[in-house]
Amino acid sequence: MEVSTAANPPAAAAPARFGEVYDRGYAHYEGPRLGRRHAIWALIVYSVKRALGIKKSWTAKVIPIILYVGVSLPVIVGIGIRAFLPSAKVLQYPTFFGLIFTIEGIFVATVAPEMLCGDRRENVLPLYFSRAITRLDYLVAKLIATAILTLTISFVPALILWLGFQLLEKYPLTAMWHHLGDLGHIAVAGTLIAFYLGAGGLTIASFTGRKSVAVAVTIILFLSSTVLAQALFHAVSSGIRRYFVFISTPQTVIGLVNGLFNTRSDPMVSAANFSVWIYIIAMSAVVLIGCAIMYWRYVPHD
Amino acid sequence: MTSAIVEKPGALPVPEIGPPESGPATVIADHVSKWYGDVVAVSDVTFGLAPGVTGLLGPNGSGKSTLLKMLAGLLAPSAGGIRVLNQRVRGNAQVYRHLGLVPEQEHVYPFLTGREFVRLNALLQKLPNPDAATARAIATVDMEEPARRKIGGYSKGMRQRIKVAAALVHDPDVLLMDEPLNGMDPVQRAHTIQLIRTLGANGKTVLVSSHVLPEVERLAQNILVIINGKLAAAGDFRAIRDKIDAHDHAVRIRTNEPRRLAAALIALPATRAVRMESDGRLTAETNDVRAFYRAVPEIAKAEKIHLYEIFPTDESLTSVFSYLVER
Amino acid sequence: MATTATASSPELITPTGEILGPPVIETRGLTKIYGGVVALDRLDLSVPRAAIGLLGPNGAGKTTLLRLLLGLAKPDAGSAEVLGFDTATQGLDIRAHVGYMPESDCLPPGATAADFVGHMAEMSGLPGRQARQRAADVLYQVGLDEERYRLIKGFSTGMKQRVKLAQAIVHDPSLVFLDEPTAGLDPPGREDMLALITRIHHSLGITVVVSTHILEDVERVCDYVVILNGGRLVLAQPLRELGGSGGDLLVRVDGNPELFLARLAQQGIVGATAPDAYGNGWGELLIPNTGDRAYDAIRDVAAELHLPLRTLRRRERSLEDVYLGNFENGTANGNRNGQ
C-alpha cells in the first residue's frame, strides 16, 4: 500500500466509477387520478375508434370506409354538377337525404351492434362495472359515441354539401347568410335522423350479444318496415291509415325532411298529411323510448 | 414401486405402472402416436396401467388430452394400439360395459334431474337392475338429495359429481377421469378424492388427469407425465425424483444445535451444501439421498443433537413436475 | 417452496399473529336478500391488510359479498366499509382503489393486451399517457413480453389469466379481489400465478383476497382465512392460528416400517402406519408426540437400524382439516340455499 508523505504526495485518487442499478420493478402510481368524466370521455373515444375499425384489422375498416365513400359521392357529385354545369338542376337537400338513407341505415346497423354487442358477448361488462364508473355512465358514453358517429354520416355530409354550394356562389358570405334557413333545416334533419336511427339500432343491439343477429335484425327492420307500412296503407281504407307512416322508418324520415324543406316526394307521406312537428315529435319519442328501454336493460341491477 | 418392465408373451416389453401384486395391466398403450398433418400430438407412448389410481399429468398442449381421448376410444391413434381389458377400445361398443368416462366438457342435459341422467346411463348400459344401480351410484357420490332436482340448477361441482355417478353406474373396471374435481368446493373435493382412492383400493383401474398437483399427490399412487407428446416419466413420484440427477435434493432440518450439525454434515461426501436459514433451520443439499438420510440420525445420535424436523423441500409432486418440464 | 408457516407479511399481521392497523374490509350486520333467498345473513366481518383466502361452498354468499363490497349493490340491512369508504354511498371511491380479477372469460379477443389494459386504466381514472405507460409496465410485470402487443385472440389460458390480473392492478389499487386465479392453468401456469400473487402482496404491498376452492393454494399464498357458509361467517382468522400444536409426528423411513415400529415399541413408544398413505414401499408412520423422548427415540432407532430417515415432522392441522371440521354435518351438498 502506498504511504503518502510530504516527499511523496499521494497520487490523484482513482476516480470513482459511476455504476448504478435502477429499479425496473413495479412502481406505485403517484400521478393524477381523474374522475368519472375523464373515464366517460375515454370510453367514448375508445368506442368510436373501435366502431370505425381503427386499431383493428382491415376487414373491420372496410364497411365504414365504403359507407363514408358512398355518402360522399352524392356530395361530390352534387357540388361538382353545380360547379361545372351551372345550368343543370341543383341537387336538393330532401333528395340528398333520400339518397343517403340506405347508407345511413346500413351504417347504424353496423355501428350500433359494435357499440354494445361485443362487450356483452365477450363478458367484458363486469370489468367495466368494476371500474370507477356507474352503469349509467357506461350507457351514456355509448349513446354519445353512437350519436357522434351517426352525426358524421347524416349531418356532416349535408353540411359539407351546403358549404360547397355557398362557396361556389359569387359572394359566399352573403349566400351563407341567405341560406341560413337551409342550414337550420339541415341541422334539425341531420341531428334528428342521426338520433332516431341511432336509438333504434342501439335499442335492438342492447338485447343481444350476437353482433350478426343485431345487424340483421336492424337492417331487416329498417327495410321491411316500409314494406309493412305500404301494405297496411293499401289494405286499410279508413283515416287511421295515415298513422301507418310512422311504422316505416324511411318514410318517417322522408316526412320530416319533406316537412322541413316543403317538398313532396313520397305518395304515402303526402297522403298522410302530417305537419313537420308531428314527425319531430314522433322521432323524438322513438329516441326517448329507446333510451328508456336501454336504461332498463343496463342500469338497474341491485 | 418404480416402474417394472413386464414381459408380455409375444409382444415388446411394456413398462408397467403399479405394484406387481395388483395384477396385470388392464390398460395398455403400445407405441401409440397421433399426428395431425405435420403436428405430432402424441409421439410413441408406451405404458401399461395396473389396477389402482394413476395420475396423468402434462402441461397444456402436451398431448395429454389427446392421449386421454385415445384411451377412451374417442380418437383413433395414427400408429400403435390401445387395449383396455385386453380388447380394442376404438369402435368397440362392448368395451364400454367395463369402461367409465368422466369427460371435462359439460355434456349433461340441463332439463333432466340428476337421477334421470344417471338412470339414462344405466339403461344405455343395459343393466339388469337400473334403479338399484342408479341409487347406488348416486349414494356413492353423496348426491341423494339433489338428485331429485334438475341438472340445470346445479352448481359446477354438483354437475361434476353427477357425471361421476353416471360413469360409475355400471361398476366399470376401468375409469378415465378428466379434471374430475373441477368446480368442486373443498368438501366435495375431499369426498371425491376419497371415492377415487376407494375405487383404486377395490381393484379398479382409475386414471385421473388433473392440473392440481397437490391433489394428485394425494389420490394417485403413480403418475404418468406427458411432455411434448412424449412420455417423460412414469411411476411413483418420489422414485422419479430420485432419478432426476440434475437437481440435488434439498432437505430442511430443524435441530437444537444447527451449527454443530451443519459442521458434521458438511463432512459427509453425500452433502453438497449446507445453508443456515434466517429462522435457524438448516437446508442441506445432497445428491445421494439414501446415504444422506441414513447418515443424519447416525450423526445426530453420535453428537447427541436433537432432531426435530427432517423434510425434503423439493420432493413434492409440484417440484418433480417442474423439474421434468425444464429438462 | 411450500411452507407451512404463514408468510410474514410486511403488512399488518405481525409474526406473532397480532393484527395492527385499521381493517381493510369491515362489515356490520351485512344482509342481502335476493328474491326470498338470504344471500348474506347479518355478516360481521373485520379483515386486516393481509393475503386473505375467501372460502366456502358455492352459494355461500362469496359473490354477493363481493358485489356489495365493490359498491355494485346496496345492502338490505347492515353496513360495510372497504378501505374506509362506505360501500352504500362511496362505491365509486372504492372501485377507484380496488381491482377485480373475475373467474370467467372476460377479455375482448379483438383487442391487443396493451390496448385493452390501457383502456381499463383510463376507465379507472388514469390520464391517457400514463394509462398506456402503466399498462405496458404492468403487463411486463405479470410476465408478458412482446405478447402484450398481440391480439388477445391468440392467447393461451395462462396468458389470458395474466392479462386479467394486469387489468386488476393497472390502476395501482390498494386491494385486489382474485376469483379462482388458477382456474384452467396447467401446473407451470399455476406455479407462476401463485408466485405472482405472492409477489403482488409481499413486494407490491397490495392486499389480496383470493376466492378459491383449492385449499392448498390458500395455504401457499394466504396468511388469513375467511370461510362463509349460507351467508354467514364460519371462521375468520390468521392462518397461523389454525395450525394447533402438539400433533402427531409423521415419520417416513426407507425399508421395513414394521421393524422400526417394533424397535420403537421396545422403548415404550407406540406408533402406527399412517392410515392415509399410499405405501409404495416407503413406510409412512405416525408416532405420538411426547416431546424430546419421541424425537430422540426416532433418531436413535433409525440410527441403530441404519434406515434412511426421509421425513420427520410434526403433523399440523392442515387448512383442509379445519375446513372439513367446520362442515361436518353433510353440508357437502351445500347450504340452506341448496347449491
What does this structure look like?
- The complex is a heterotrimer of chains A (302), B (327) and C (339).
- With 302 residues, chain A is mostly helical.
- Chain A is 70% helix and 0% strand.
- Chain A is built from 11 helices and no strands.
- In chain A, helix 3 (93-121) packs parallel to helix 7, helix 3 (93-121) crosses helix 8 and helix 3 packs antiparallel against helix 9 (249-261).
- The radius of gyration of chain A is 29 Å and the shape is globular.
- Chain B has 327 residues and is α/β, with parallel strands linked by helices.
- Chain B has 2 domains: 4-241, P-loop containing nucleotide triphosphate hydrolases (Rossmann fold), CATH 3.40.50.300; 245-326, Alpha-Beta Plaits (2-Layer Sandwich), CATH 3.30.70.100.
- Helices cover 33% and strands 28% of the residues of chain B.
- Chain B is built from 10 helices and 16 strands.
- Chain B has helices spanning 64-71, 114-124, 130-140, 156-168, 186-201, 213-219, 237-243, 258-266, 289-303, 317-326, and strands at residues 4-6, 14-17, 27-36, 39-49, 52-57, 79-84, 87-88, 99-102, 174-178, 205-209, 222-227, 230-235, 249-255, 271-276, 282-286, 307-312.
- In chain B, the strands form 3 sheets. Chain B has a 6-stranded mixed β-sheet. In chain B, strands 8-9-10-5-11-12 form a 6-stranded mixed β-sheet, with helices on both faces. A 4-stranded antiparallel β-sheet of chain B has the order 14-15-13-16, covered by helices on one side.
- In chain B, helix 5 (186-201) links the parallel strand 9 (174-178) and strand 10.
- In chain B, helix 2 (114-124) crosses helix 3, helix 2 (114-124) runs parallel beside helix 4 (156-168) and helix 3 (130-140) crosses helix 4 (156-168).
- Mean pLDDT of chain B is 88; it is low at 1-14.
- Chain C folds into 2 domains: 25-240, P-loop containing nucleotide triphosphate hydrolases (Rossmann fold, 3-Layer(aba) Sandwich), CATH 3.40.50.300; 249-314, Alpha-Beta Plaits (2-Layer Sandwich), CATH 3.30.70.
- A 6-stranded mixed β-sheet of chain C has the order 6-7-8-3-9-10.
- The longest helix of chain C is centred in the middle third of the chain and has 16 residues, at 187-202.
- Chains in contact: A-C, B-C.
- At the B-C interface, helix 4, helix 5, helix 6, helix 9 and strand 16 of B face helix 6, helix 9, strand 14 and helix 10 of C.
